[in-house]
Specification:
mainly beta; Porin; two-stranded antiparallel ribbon
Length: about 270
């Protein structure tokens, strides 16, 4: 029971100021995001499924991805997710499946996402998701919620974005509610090879987290990433490498000053034109 209680406290966010938003129910992050200090609002590829769905509007071909993550190198905090994005004449549709936890505490989530371009300088998107939370000795709870996001070009090479995760606040257990995250950020493309990212993420009940990332793309399909965040402070790094014509392998490691490393890895597929 003590082990179960500890896991529940960690996951449900009672120690959010220590976990800096690592709650799986709050936000699932792809390896690309993990390598960039958790920044993810201005992606325009399949990684937008696990960040800001407005970025799906930038997906031009059938794309899919899968990744795994072991938070703080603890076997009890494993996460696995898969997602796919399909462009159509009326926007880009996405599907996500995610699993987090163990037999004592487990989250399963299914999400249906959509992104659309309104103009050359404006994209919108959102996601409707169903989550089932299973806690040993407490039973299970099913929840519907939604996310909504936007991306807009402010100046040439400068894009802004905003996103709301879990827009409806719902009770999970006594005194425990679904965490909601409000976030906003910028990306500045210094050149074709370098982009700089800065974001502010704020849970309704806890301190804000400033996040920063830099991505270097020396060749067409090779990426090097680094980043850090401020609440409570930590750094990360990662890379992306081609393994076949249509596949990219992404790997990242994020360091938490109290809890240690969180490695993650995944494969992204894009159908070539």
């Amino acid at each position: 029971m003590n082990r179960l209680f500890l896991l529940s406290v960690l996951i449900l966010g009672s120690t959010f100021h220590i976990l800096q938003g690592q709650n799986a129910l709050l936000m699932s992050s792809s390896p690309r995001s993990n390598g960039l200090g958790k920044t993810n609002l201005n992606f325009t590829d399949v990684n937008s499924l696990f960040g800001n769905q407005a970025g799906l509007a930038g997906v031009e071909e059938l794309s899919a991805m899968a990744y795994v993550e072991q938070r703080f190198l603890l076997s009890d905090l494993n996460q696995a997710a898969i997602g796919a994005a399909l462009p159509t004449f009326s926007g880009v549709f996405g599907l996500t499946l995610r699993n987090f936890g163990t037999a004592d505490y487990q989250e399963n989530e299914v999400g249906v996402a959509y992104g659309r371009t309104l103009s050359d300088k404006l994209r919108i998107g959102g996601q409707l998701h169903w989550s089932q939370i299973n806690i040993a000795e407490y039973g299970s709870r099913s929840l519907f919620n939604f996310d909504i996001g936007i991306q807009a070009e402010l100046l040439p090479n400068l894009w802004a974005a905003a996103h709301v995760r879990n827009a409806i606040r719902q009770r999970i257990l006594d005194q425990e509610y679904t965490p909601g995250l409000l976030s906003a950020g910028l990306v500045y493309r210094v050149s074709d090879k370098v982009s700089l990212r800065a974001e502010l993420a704020k849970d309704i009940d806890f301190p804000a987290d400033l996040r920063f990332g830099i991505e270097y793309n020396p060749t067409k399909a090779i990426f090097f990433r680094g980043g850090f965040n401020t609440a409570p402070g930590g750094w990360s790094f990662g890379f992306g490498l081609p393994i076949l014509n249509n596949l990219i392998f992404d790997c990242a490691a994020a360091y938490h000053p109290y809890l240690g490393f969180t490695p993650s890895a995944g494969i992204a597929y894009r159908k070539k034109k």
